[in-house]
Amino acid sequence: MKKIIETALPLKALSVSAMGDKAHKGHPGNMHLWWNRSPVDSSAALLAADILDGPANEEDEKRKQISVLLCQIAGGKGNFSTIQNPEKLPVVCDPFSGFGGLTIAAQKVGLQVQAGDLNAVACLLTKAVAEIPARFMNEKAVHPDAENRFYFGAEGLAADVAHYGRWLRDTVEYRMKDEYPFVQIPGIKEDAPAYAWIWVRTMKCPNPACGCRMPLAGSYVLSKTAGHEYWAEPEIQDKKIRFQIHQGICPKEKETNKHGSVGAKFQCPVCGEITKDEFVKKTGKEGGLEIQLMAVCVQTKDGRMYVEPDQRQMDAAKALIPDELPIGSLPNNTRWFSPPGFGLTEYTDLYTPRQLLLMTTLCDLLPEVMSQVSEDAIAAGMTEDKVPLSEGGKGAYAYGQAVGVYLALVIGKLANFQSSICTWDNRKGNIRAAFTKQAIPMAWVFGEGNPFSTVTGNFNTMLQNVVESVAGLSAAVPAKVEQANAVTMEFPKDSVLFTELPYYDNVGYADLSDYFYIWLRRCLKNVYPQLFEKVVTSKEELSSIPEHFDGDSAEAVREYQNGIRRMLQNFHQAAAEEYPSVLFFEYSKQDEEAIRSDGKMEKMTPFEQLLDSMIQAGFMVTGVWPVRTEKANPRFNSVRIAVVFRKKKEDAQGATRRGFINTMKRELPGMLDISFSEDIEDEDKPIAGLGSGLSIFTGYKKVINADGSDMSIHDALCLIHQEIRDYLDVHAADAQTEEV
């Protein structure tokens, strides 16, 4: 029997839910940065539609009732109580779990879930949002000051993360008080705490006759806040640089010494020599790039002010770098990583000495915190055993490690605001995160925030983000989360695949996540020894990143496509007979243009390639639904789609091209009537209609052309598209006639 997901969906409500699924306060995605997060509530609605039987064509009232339920679930308010015996339903498998959004969705619907990722950071995040909270549901907080009350869900866990997180912060602040000294402000008796330090990279002027230490300043403007404008002016004395701080609006001609908008071209403020991009890179690779304090930002009762750094501030910034630092090299991939081109080749090169001391001090204090949590848990009555978290522990020892996991994520979030690629936002007078996009660019002027102040990205804020996210978790169904390769993993029998496929080389998850991995590993390598066994994350991820294949783009694409094909073939043996599976993918303009064309294509588009892999693995496609995470915009190159598929019947019959076309002309209009009876945007109908047409085409064992060859997926899509266009044209004409 067809499921709701194979007939009609309230697409508009699902897309509205997906577009609104942002990492706001209390959202599980706010626990730590991850790229391209899968939305939770819209995915829960899709899973509900995946297990609910579709009503008969004439059962309009029942269809409406189910639609209302799906809309409620997508809105985060629905109570899906249809599941009475989840053990009799299929296990949901998500082998590309990312931050765990689809895993949470399965738990919300009440389904058993087996999730994981090859990427250790993604695997850890999924454990944090699904596996760990399910293990400690409704446990009381154990810290000495905890309230004696009932704690729902993960509230007790969150309360402990907050308590021990504050202790961690206070301890590190005390130990590093000399590295974060108060600021002496001219004309003011009392010293004030520093809010942030603004740095600039410098190099020796390429003009041999000059040779001064010149700044490489994208901007000298420190603040554009109305009434509190400040800017810095470089002054060269004995070939050394210092900065004079001015209050007021910076003259246009003194805003920067960057020359042009492309490349590392800067003009020396002394001799006027302009650097060349290749010379700056050469200087950086030879160790000639340095950093220098340009200004100190101070938060006062009258607002923020900026002062020239004195010797005390400069000495404090030269903190003693720890002997043992995390190991990890930045990738040689100029598309996403600019720093290696300028000599910053190790991840630790991206930090100031003080930032390195801060991060290592936080990481190395974490075992002490976990030990204290375990002692307090035993005192509070929790089972005393030595079964670790990685082996399914539920006692005091594992609980201490669990709290440590969330505090490690706080430290990871802090790293996003504590490096020399965090640019200074002079409009708001604050730190920008290292990741404002899916790349690590070079920063010439950067801000170093005081983590113990109220600056953006401070420790207290990061802690609060994690605490609020943990408090909102209510994983009633246990989840099994393991690090595994999706291509070769063993799927449980009678399972459904419900996962978001990585899209070719769109995001370099493995390379990007190393930025956080090096710190998470330092925190948790003894908690999850297998997960953090490697120095950096595995680069065997399913992607078509050329740098992972010695720069061979064609080989990268082939391996990516072969990986998806092998995964589907592997999954076919375990796929449920009664329930369909869902793969989230991207439907691009390239795919659309190919379908609109009637000519032969030299090679399949990504969408066609995916469909062909499903067919070759023994599946039939029963739905294609655009579930948008961004509003429709002609400038966008792709839209997120949910491709629904199930095992093809073993007794499937073949058909001729003419027979397929006749069947489609006879059956497709009725199927589209049902699909389009829901609230669906006009721009989504041509995509959604493809699913109905594909369910006819892929239901056959094969379709034979007049010349005896097998019909290709490209030709089938072209025919389906034409039928959908004819259907829409007829209905548009009918609607126009009715208006007249």
Describe the overall structure.
The protein starts with 10 loop residues before the first helix and ends with a helix. The radius of gyration is 29 Å and the shape is globular. Helix 2 runs antiparallel to helix 3, helix 2 (41-51) packs across helix 4 (101-109) and helix 17 (685-697) crosses helix 18. It is of the alpha/beta class. It has a 7-stranded mixed β-sheet, sandwiched between helices. Strands 3, 4, 8, 9 and 12 form a 5-stranded antiparallel β-sheet that branches. It has a 3-stranded antiparallel β-sheet with strand order 5-6-7, with no helix packed on it. The protein has 18 helices and 19 strands.
Distance between the termini: 42 Å
Helical content (DSSP H or I, runs of 4+): 25-40%
Which spans of ≥5 residues are poorly predicted at pLDDT below 50? none
Rg for CA atoms: 29 Å
Order of adjacent strands in the largest pleated sheet: 13-2-1-14-15-17-16
β-strand percent reads 5-15%
Average pLDDT figure? 93
Classification by helices and strands: alpha/beta
**What sort of overall outline do the alpha carbons produce when their principal axes are compared?**
globular
Number of helices: 18
**Largest sheet at a glance?**
7 strands, mixed
How many beta-strand elements?
19
Key traits:
seven-stranded mixed sheet, five-stranded antiparallel sheet
Short structural description:
This protein is an alpha/beta fold and 740 residues long. It has helices at residues 11-19, 41-51, 60-74, 101-109, 120-135, 155-175, 277-285, 311-317, 353-379, 396-415, 459-471, 509-524, 553-572, 589-596, 606-616, 657-675, 685-697, 713-739; strands at residues 91-94, 113-116, 194-204, 213-216, 221-223, 230-237, 240-247, 290-300, 303-307, 424-425, 430-431, 445-449, 479-482, 495-500, 581-588, 619-626, 638-647, 655-656, 703-704. Helix 6 runs antiparallel to helix 11 (459-471) and helix 16 (657-675) crosses helix 18.
